[in-house]
Amino acid sequence: MNTFTPASRVSRIKVSPSSAASARARDLKAAGRDIVDMTVGEPDFDTPDDVKAAAHAAIDRGETKYTAVNGTPALRRAIIGDFKRRLGLDYAENEICVGGGAKQILFLALMASVENGAEVIVPAPYWVSYPDMVIANDGTPVIVECPEAQGFKLTPAALEAAITPKTLWLILNAPSNPTGAAYSRAELEALGAVLLRHPQVFVLSDDIYDQVWFRDEPMTTLAAAVPALKDRILLTNGVSKSYAMTGWRIGYAAGPAPLVAAINKLQSQMSSCPSSVSQAAAAYALSADQSFVRDSVAVYKERRDYACARLNAIPGLSCTVPDGAFYLFPNCAGVIGRRMPEGKVIETDLDFVLYLLDGVGVAALQGAAYGLSPHFRLSIATSMEAIREACDRIERAVAALR
Ligand code: PMP
Predict the structure, then answer these.
(1) Residue 60 class from Cβ within 10 Å (0-12 exposed, 13-18 middle, 19+ buried)?
(2) Which pLDDT score is estimated for 23?
(3) What Gene3D superfamilies does the database record attribute to this sequence (predicted)?
(4) How many C-beta atoms lie closer than 10 Å to residue 213's C-beta?
């Protein structure tokens, strides 16, 4: 019998490790285990009621048909307004594209541009999907390690050293998943100075967490800090994280018109457009009162402060305080080489997260999945009660090591 063989682009990539870990935690819970799940990559808040009402109203108005490939005029206007209001950036309507999540937009941007092994610089630790998205589109990810001593950030020297004549993209993600690290204006200007010397390099600026921001000074982005680069930057964002709308699947980008046109051409053959109802909800969320964003960020900040303090008090662990997003990326170097109660030595961060899962029922993700060890990622997009319980259990688990 003829068995199915997937195309090589499928065998070259892996299933997202974060989806796999969340599924494992869910399975264990379903099997009756008491698991505190710290793997979740989405807000624990419900979508705001007024956003839901905007979606109902769109349905009642009959906005239930295909829309323009590049999004409804209302959503495009809302996106342009948001970038102008928050970042001072001006974009025209033909510089905006929309998709089924920022993830789809990032994938389409690479599909629209990468071929013949073109190189994409991916600073590590990175969001797990970047390298596989590059590989699936016949590109070569060039991983540049950004150690904790550098605040998990790319330095101008490391960027310069990574650029070759084949470099097409640099991916910048700030605040970052998994570290929450973000660049200051001065740091962006210094990276910009390198990029200005290499006109073949474009920048994918994944700003999906830019409203989950804890610092007093406003968040900035490369396109605003270095205006001379704006035409080489695809600024991607979406409503998933800021407005607790992960399931509505709306992401978007702003950037040079020829690239946006190429993305829209692919989109016209791939999905025609994202959900009309979700677009109406997203347009509303971006233009309405922003108190949900302010209130939820205050809650994340309180959780961040609590969890960082608890983790930093555990001998063997240390945690850099994130600037934004809703993840912690503690360093677990101090537990490597120690013995679990049953005698096995913890050799890697994967061993440590498996020990946490089996030993005390805390689900976390190993730093190796994000390209930097020995670390682990904890999501704080969960209740304070769960965070307190997770910290108690991690403390117990580490204390039991020999
Ligand atoms: N970029 C980063 C860094 C993310 O963490 C995520 C979601 N996990 C996305 C992009 C995609 O978000 P969405 O597709 O929901 O817009």
Answers:
(1) exposed
(2) 80
(3) Aspartate Aminotransferase, domain 1 (3.90.1150.10), Type I PLP-dependent aspartate aminotransferase-like (Major domain) (3.40.640.10)
(4) 21
In DSSP terms, 96 is beta-bridged to: 254
Query: Burial of 269 by CB count in 10 Å (0-12 exposed, 13-18 middle, 19+ buried)?
Result: exposed
Q: Which ipTM value was assigned to this complex?
A: 0.99
Does the CB atom of residue 99 touch ligand 1 within 6 A? no
Q: Is 173 in the pocket of ligand 1 (CB under 6 A)?
A: yes
The dotted CATH code for 64-287 is 3.40.640.10
Look up residue 293 and give its two tokens: 């964003």
pLDDT on residue 87: 97
Determine the residue of 241, 250, 275 to mutate for testing ligand 1's pocket, defined as the one with the most ligand atoms within 8 A of the Cβ atom. 241
pTM score of the predicted model: 0.96
* Structure-block tokens of residue 224: 């605003």
pLDDT at 333: 98
CATH of 8-46+292-399, one of 3.90.1150.10, 3.40.50.720, 3.20.20.70, 1.10.4160.10: 3.90.1150.10
Measure the N-to-C terminal CA separation of the chain; round to a whole number of Å: 54
**Per-residue model confidence as pLDDT tens digits over 168-182:** 999 999 999 999 999
Q: What residues in the chain have per-residue pLDDT under 70? A: 1
- The answer to whether 109 and 253 are in contact (CB under 8 A) is yes
**What count of other Cβ atoms lies within 10 Å of the Cβ of residue 197?**
9
